[in-house]
Amino acid sequence: MHATIKKTMLSSQIVLALAAAAGAANAAEQGAATTQQAQQAQQTQQAQQDDTLVVTASAPESTFNAGSNDLVPAYLDGQIANGGRLGFLGEQKAENVPFSIVSYTSKLLQDQQAHTLSDVLDNDASVESSYGYGNFSENYVIRGFSLATDDISYGGLYGVLPRQIVSTFFAERVELLKGSSAFLNGVPPGGTGVGGNVNIEPKRADASPLTRVSLDYTSASQVGGSLDLARRFGEDDRFGARVNLIHREGETAVDGEKRRLTGGSLGLDYRGDRFRGSLDMGVTHQTVHGGRPVVYTGSITRIPDAPSATTNYGQQWAYTDLETEFGMLKGEYDVADNWTIYGALGGSHNHEYGKYSSPTLANDAGDTTMSRMTVPYFSDNVSGNTGIRGTFDTGAVSHSVNIGYSNAYTKTRSAYTLTSATVRSNIYAPVAQSEPLTNRFSGGDMGDPHVRSRTRNQGYAISDTLSVLDERVQLIAGLRRQSIAVRNYGYDGVESGTFDETKVTPAFGLVLKPWENVSFYANHIEALQAGESGATTYNGLRVSNGGQTAGIITSKQDEIGVKTDFGRVAASLALFEITKPESMYQLSGDHYDYGNYGEVRNRGLELNLFGEPVYGVRLNGSLTLLDPKMTKTQDGTYDGKKAVGVPRYHWVVSGEYDLPGLAGVTATGKLIRTGSQYADEANTLQLPAWTRLDLGVRYDMQRTENNIVWRAGVENVTNEHYWASAAGGYLTQGDPRELKLSMTVDF
Fold first, then answer.
1. Which example biological process does GO assign this protein (predicted)?
2. CB 730 within 8 A of CB 677
């Protein structure tokens, strides 16, 4: 800005000087009258110079307070933040901690028109997305290990967010922590998240008032609208309120699939001198009718080619109806200049009802059999944490100490009816058939389901970050005493299994910063947590202990890496090894049993690079290489085989280019490449590698009032048909070509 104003002043001076020169020439020819005009011109020039105000633009100083609830400042254009929440250690910059973490902001969510969490996590090569067991829930695989939506935290608390499908309309940040997080966050209630975790930060009112209305369209005929309203008020704007409302419905690009979302959230906060507090509440109601389901491998000798990208091999009477009410209360108080006590309490109630029907392949030609399972499901979750954090010095050593307690309780209720596999079809030529009504199996009371499981996780943690040499050397040392109690119940409500375990697990991390912009790090983390819960059916057969937790497991992680941040470009490189007991389905007569029948050891390399190396050109790229190997399987049957649903490599490159000569116009693109992966423990069924290309354009009209931003994007431009994932041992097909349009107006 300073340079621009100087150029403007110089141009004005040149023009006035020419005018003065012209006046002098005329004076020589025309006499005293024109000489007076030249003098007036010179006086005008001098007055303009005296009145000129020189303004120098500079970025405002960051008020980020490490370890608190303050969000890490966004990087450059505001789409990515180089850091995020590390559980009870609070928000931290990535360069200062021995963990791999990155955050995606609400600006990126808007610019990429990200409707669900899967759309956001597609930006990182460490994450694979798939569907859940026979339903339409989103499931994620981080560093080769599953992360269910039940185990995604909200403001650092588990058990608060809606499950199955997580919308993004209430998200200010999506923070991705790669690597084991049980020490930092406490034990996730669903037993997943060993390879990494995701935290969503709620939206808050900023200093500037916001009234934003958005309209969007997604092919084939989804239309939606949303409102984002924020204000601060009171003395020194200490009180804030933010309201988000959304509704979207219509047919997707998959033939005959319909989706609907209605939701709202309210965020209230108070920012005092010593006390900060917030209250977040929300409700979501989502439905999927006639959705395209996953495909079980069944009796095949090879993976069949994926059908046409838009083909829907599901049945139109299949659906899921999801509703969640959730809330979270947080507060922190500075008891002294360097000491703060904090606490949070949250919970949610989920009620779901669905009729599910996933095809099981009968042969390599794509013929399938399908049954119908009807399931009412309810879950109640309560979680909380409290603690104290502070800093002090002992000689040349600075300490940042945190002592905390966390607790998460989950109760689930469900029942089911299951028909025999009487629906016959083909994934290439689907046949619409009427819903089968005769139940072959059933469990529980469909009108009033009994309790199926109760899980309570509680833990005490202490950590100390020791820093010397002006924080160029930092050592994090911590312990967590974790207690897990699991109660499983049969469909009749009678207790059928009990697991109780307490263990103290360590965490160590080291950060070395030999130069200002470079840091080396290493960590070792061990975690105790409840195992995953199996599906009620698998490959068309009943699971004897479906819906119940498969015991208690202990996982371990070792990681080393290097990070750089040069202000315009940031990069990181990590090498890691994670071991975890593996939950598997084992065939037993006419049913499957689900349990921890092996161990998986994943070794990998991660490379991340993002920033704006040239003005107007923004890049975000990542690469993950994995060696996922099964060990300690029952009787050594699968020892040395590759883990199911984990590709050997995955890379993502995305970018933006501000088109020269077209003010406010930006071209966008993303290229995703995923390597082959196995769909069975014996490694006889292999999915081929696949590639997806997304392209788009954005036009920011840059109006001083009522600014309007237009966005258009096409995902899977070439309409590739491919199996996107084999996670869980079943096939999830990639989405077809999809057009997204949106308009956002700020009032």
1. siderophore transport
2. no
For position 714, what pLDDT does the model report?
98
CA distance 246 to 396: 53
Write down which residue in 134, 167, 198 finishes a domain. Answer: 198
Instruction: Write the DSSP string, 481-503.
Output: EEEEEEEEE-TTS-EEEEEEEEE
| Residue 236 region by backbone torsions, left for phi larger than 0, else alpha for psi between -120 and 50, else beta | left
When divided into structural domains, the chain yields a total of: 2
Query: Tokens at residue 76, please?
Result: 């450059």
Query: Quick check: 369 and 429 in contact, CB under 8 A?
Result: no
pTM confidence score? 0.87
* Measured CA distances, 42 to 15, 35, 39, 52, 545 (Å): 11, 11, 5, 16, 94
Are 626 and 649 in contact by the 8 Å Cβ rule? The answer is yes
Residue 39 carries which side chain, given as an amino acid letter? Q
Structure tokens belonging to residue 238: 């200490």
pLDDT number for residue 632: 84
Q: List, for the chain, all residue ranges whose pLDDT scores fall below the cut of 70.
A: 1-63, 531-534, 540, 547-551
Residue among 48, 45, 13, 18 nearest 26 (CA): 18
Look up residue 365 and give its two tokens.
């030609």
Same domain, 176 and 211: no
Query: Structural domain of residue 114, as residue ranges?
Result: 74-198
Q: Are residues 263 and 135 in the same domain?
A: no
On whether both 138 and 233 belong to a single domain, the answer is: no
Q: What is the pLDDT of residue 366?
A: 96
Other Cβ atoms closer than 10 A to 724: 22
**What does the alpha-carbon distance between residue 547 and residue 453 come to, in Å, rounded to a whole number?**
8
Q: Are residues 225 and 81 in the same domain?
A: no
User: Does any domain span residue 39?
Assistant: no
pLDDT of residue 7: 37
Cα separation, 212 vs 475, in Å, equals 44
Residue 490 and residue 623 in one domain: yes
**Considering Cα of 558, then 564, then 570, then 573, what sign does the dihedral take?**
negative
pLDDT at residue 499, rounded to an integer: 84
The verdict on 236 and 188 lying in the same domain is no
d(CA 729, CA 629): 15
- The token duo for 545 is 């202990």
Diameter of the chain measured on Cα atoms: 117
